[in-house]
Amino acid sequence: MADVTMTVWRGDPSGGAFTDYVMPAVEGEVVLDVLHRIQAGPAPDLACRWNCKAGKCGSCSAEINGRPALMCMTRVDELPVGEPIVVAPMRTFPIIRDLVTDVSFNYTMARQVPPLAPRAPDAPDGTYRMMQIDVERGQEFRKCIECFMCQDVCHVIRDHEENKTQYAGPRMFIRFMELESHPLDTNDRRELLRQKMGLGMCNITKCCTEVCPEHIKITDNAIIPLKERVVDSAYDPVAWLGRKILRRTKRSAAEADADAPAKTHPTSADGPTPTPTAGIAASS
Ligand code: SF4
Ligand code: SF4
Ligand code: FES
Fold first, then answer.
1. CATH number of domain containing 64
2. Does 60 contact ligand 2 (Cβ within 6 A)?
3. Could you tell me which residues are beta bridge partners of residue 75?
4. Which of 126, 283, 79, 62 is nearest to 192 (CA)?
5. Does 198 sit in the ligand 1 pocket, CB within 6 Å?
6. Does residue 84 share a domain with residue 121?
């Protein structure tokens, strides 16, 4: 077989450049295999992150030929023959070294998602009654392997670093939808999504859905339904009147926000504890 040329970004936060490595081609390899042979040969100090080599841990995300992909699931023989394979770190996150990026932004946002707050059991023995269709709705979102490629490709933060303080991103939106559609949940996260999590900044380009290795329909099944719920809560007068007349079953946005792990378990990285309800209008 012919040689394979791998053009790999090497560098650190101060800067870097692409370096070519020409390696003998080996049948059946994925991009991560070639990187491992580069580490074992010409560049033992090449940094890349990986764990399972089976597409399940989400560690080996990178940009291969300009597109976010898992290095362990990208076969070399499916890339254009005779052309260099360009491997770069995910652009949206700060560089640590070579192909390794600091994805802690995602954990910071995850800690701001109010958790499940289950309602009281339906029976004295502590059991619940749920429709199977409601149980199944959230299963799709639990397939997420947290590769953060959807976050990487989302232009709201990819091209605008300044948006990161006010934008949860597609991975977190599916977490919100998983909880919002949970048949037992009593938290209301809609105002939080509208005012602090930047749901309105997503303009449904569907780039996140296109790169998801778990084929989660992020936009169709999470973002669009969330947007509909937020609009209902904020602008639909009939829904507003209904909530006034009918008994409220959901906990308010302020109550839900106060439950978020970042509020209940702050770390030293959080600095002074912010006022949990600031900027969040209580739902009626
Ligand atoms: S659909 Fe929304 S969340 Fe997904 S990439 Fe586009 S702007 Fe970002
Ligand atoms: S939703 Fe898909 S692309 Fe986004 S982090 Fe989860 S598995 Fe990765
Ligand atoms: S090494 Fe686990 S997903 Fe690639």
1. 3.10.20.30
2. no
3. 30
4. 283
5. no
6. no
Which residue has tokens 């946002």? 109
pLDDT 10s digits, 4-54? 999 999 999 999 999 999 999 999 999 999 999 999 999 999 999 999 999
Ligand 1 center–CA 234 separation, angstroms: 22
Ligand 3: residues with CB < 6 A are: 50-53, 55-60, 70, 72
Q: How many domains does the chain have?
A: 2
Sheet holding 85-88, edge to edge: 15-24, 3-12, 85-88, 61-64, 67-70
Q: How far is the CA of 236 from the CAs of 106, 199, 228, 243, in angstroms?
A: 32, 18, 10, 11
How many A from CA of 207 to the centre of ligand 1?
Answer: 6
Select from 192, 156, 158, 200 the least CA-distant residue to 176: 192
Given ligand 1 and candidates 203, 211, 220, which is best to mutate, with the most ligand atoms within 8 Å of its CB?
203
Torsion angle of C-alpha atoms 166, 282, 227, 256, degrees rounded to 10: 70
Distance 134 CA to ligand 1 centre (A): 25
For the segment 48-74, the average pLDDT, to the nearest whole number, is 98
Atom in ligand 3 nearest the alpha carbon of residue 53: 1
pLDDT tens sequence across 201-243: 999 999 999 999 999 999 999 999 999 999 987 676 766 676 6
Cα 140 to ligand 1 centre (Å) = 18
How far is Cα of residue 263 from the mean position of the Cα atoms in its chain?
20
Domain finish residue from 70, 101, 132: 101
Q: Do residues 112 and 28 both lie within one domain?
A: no
